[in-house]
Amino acid sequence: MSVNLALLDTSFDMCIKCTVCTTKCPVAEVQPDYPGPKQSGPDGERWRIKGEGFYDESLKYCTNCKRCEVACPSGVEIGSIIQKAKVRSGRHKPKIRDYILSHTDLMGAVATPVAPVVNMVTKVKPVRKLMDKVLDIDERPALPTYSWQTFRQWFKKDAPDQTGFKRQITFYHGCYINSNDTTVGKDLVKVLNAMNIGVQLLKKEKCCGVPLIANGFMDKAQSNAKLNTEQFREALEGDSECVISTSSSCSMTIRDEYHKLLEVDNRELVDRIFFFNTFLVKEFEQGNLPEMKPVKIKIAYHSPCHLIRVGGIVFTLEILRRIPGVELHMLDQRCCGQAGTYGFKKENYETSQEIGAPIFDQINKINPDFVVTDCEACKMQVESSTDYKVLHPLSVLARAL
Amino acid sequence: MKTIETDVVVIGGGATGAGILRDCALRGIKAVLVERDDIANGTTGRNHGLLHSGARYAVTDGHSAKECIRENRILKNIASHCVEETDGLFLTLPEDELSFQHKFITACSDAGIETQLLTPQEALKLEPNANPDMLGAVRVPDGTLDPFRLTSANILDAVEHGAQVMTYKKVVSLIIEQGIVRGVNCIDIKTGEAVTVRARQVVNAAGIWGQQIAEYANLSIRMFPAKGSLLIMDYRINSMVLNRCRKPADADILVPGDTISLIGTTSRKVPYEEIDNIKVDSDEIDVLIREGEKLAPILGRSRVLRAYCGVRPLISVDGDTSGRNISRGIVIRDHADTDGLPGLVTVAGGKLMTYRLMAEMTTDVVSKNLETNACCTTAETKLPGASKDKIKQAASVSVPVSISAQYRHGERAEQFLKGDSLSKSVVCECEMITRGEIEYAIEQLNAHSLVDLRRRTRLGMGPCQGEVCACRAADVLQETLKKQGKETNIAKDLNEFLQTRWKGVLPVLWGDALREADFTYWTYQSLLGASSLEDFSHNRSGQKDGIQNTAALVENSLATQLEREV
Description:
The complex is a heterodimer. Chain A is an alpha/beta fold. In chain A, 49% of the residues lie in helices and 7% in strands.
């Protein structure tokens, strides 16, 4: 089975042309060649139904940030319409570069055993120049570094024993925590253990699929979705209360996109798949609040697009507010421009920087000790484009324990 | 008072009148066309826009079928930019007699219409949205025919060959001197100015309104007004014309017209006095949706954009009361022969499909009366826009804008696609119409108002029904007319345009169409204060304020829908 890209979904028909999506599109704001989500999504779909020849190349500028879907008062899944149209058109055949950038789990498996070498090499200027020339990966943004020990390896060998806890949850760590930066995973274990909850991992897991969708590997994304969903089902049939993810994009994908976009039916499970923040706030509300000491830091919080899409910002803010001593500054809710793999691509780098510029300026003005955000792509963009280090909200919480 | 001298004056700016004007011009006959409204405003612009193969008439009216297939082949050549060769399917559904299929194929073959018998699987592969329960299908060379573009292209060619067109000129009397018709007296319905056109031949091509023209000469022509209603769907739900393989009945044709689909028609007798005030009845809408869903089940899940109706200009020839069995045959009367009144020729009956043939036959009569011997060349001479020359893709124009402009105007689109970046900016986003295209329609295609622009470009015909483009286009219209030294009351024009849009939406005001109308009302009335603009409250002919009226209707519909949901 492959993902059905046919035009059976007529949700575009609900669009009342109010154009509010286009006013909220970070790409349309800086890239005059992109006509915005209304024209690329529901308007364009009418034409593409008439004939595939009406496909507009400018759809390639869409970052799939989904701010259009948040803005839409008519329930049109504009971002998904555009993603499907891109793949259906066959015009943007993924390049080797897109394969490398999107197959995050595979790249992690290849890179982690030789992490120090990879990390060093990807910082060498001539190497970056070569990648820029040959692969169209822009030489300017810092590429993700790889971890010498994967999170799974750490969890197996070095993590504290989890069997003593009466309550158990399953952690879907995703690629970034496993291969690139294990900190957030370790912090989750620390925080949950402090709340008397044990952590388990899935027997196996694959990339959630979000970079695969954005780069046109729909069938691969679908097969990952099937494997992950089976794993979730198995874990939830066992002694796990729920599945938790700490990445906002992974979390949106495994909960919502699997059935909406990839046609993998996970609807009976979604009520037990949580982004860490809703789970923690629920526990806090029920009185399961870990003992915290003051953390005297000034932080600037950046809202990731995909967390806005699922309505999750308020829960992260609630967690940050409960940590004593934290001076919290809220950055404007603008896209940082990274959009997963988008900002690494040579043709997008400048658009990506232009989208993020107001955020970078605001961070510089606030001059915080740390920028805080829930998304690893936003973290990479901010760290690459400013002098500030970015923490995950869980890492701030872990410092208070 | 203005007086114009010419050889032929044609009354009526529908497809037939435009065709006659072109035919005269190509034969070197001096001709003027007068139309009381805009071109293609009557029956021409209120039908399916179906390029018949003739298959629909094959079993019941072999003569019409033969005419259709002949004209079908001609139009594919001379009007390629107004035609889409989609082909059509005649579906046999479980409630239909499969035995009719054999009769149908035989009749088509007798009329010279090629057919291809398909299994349901083969038919669904060609048209995935067709009813999967069908028992069988026959493929025929049906297609789509855009009546607005067709009329406009005929006029454009006529004008380029020396003819003259005067829209918004209502004929108020015929000039009859010594028992010979010598011309027409008109009134400009916008300015009230009187205009006289003196001619050696007067052609009455006013369609259903031709009865009134004949009455000016105390002649009796009995028209048989039969109303047909149609629904427009929000997008193209089918890519081939879908028909039922049975005797013609209500709501059994689904046509993919440009960006939308049309389901129709009904057929109801209306009293002649009511032909200017017909409207779509709610039970007609029920029939159209119920029957339309049988052709393509997706129709029931799609937004209905608007409803409209037209009057078939059939001449009563027998005792039939439904209007369905009357021949679509062409009637031409040289009143010199039939009524002893030289100078007047009436053409009636027929259909959009045979407009060119009607024009040829009429012009033959006129030509004989004028004693000229030039032959008709309209069957071979391509209309402007139909050259099939591909124009260069302008670098700064997006592909959908460029292709849709060519779809509408053929190679003539090059004239406005090569303009500066301002002229390439998109005004109507649903239908991808640029500022340049609007300027072109005003300057070259004789558009005077926003409603005229709609007929020439599809402005405001998409899902938003003018919500996004109306005020933008009003600005372009005012500026362009000003450059031509013409004054216009743009607030009034905008109001009229919105009224014509709302008129079509009102009968189908539920679901998303209702939300859309409510949003449009909110934008134009609550946000822009449209009714407080000068002249907005002084509507023509003492009607109640149109916008307020619409507001009340929107609120009523909302209330009804809420009641239903409760």
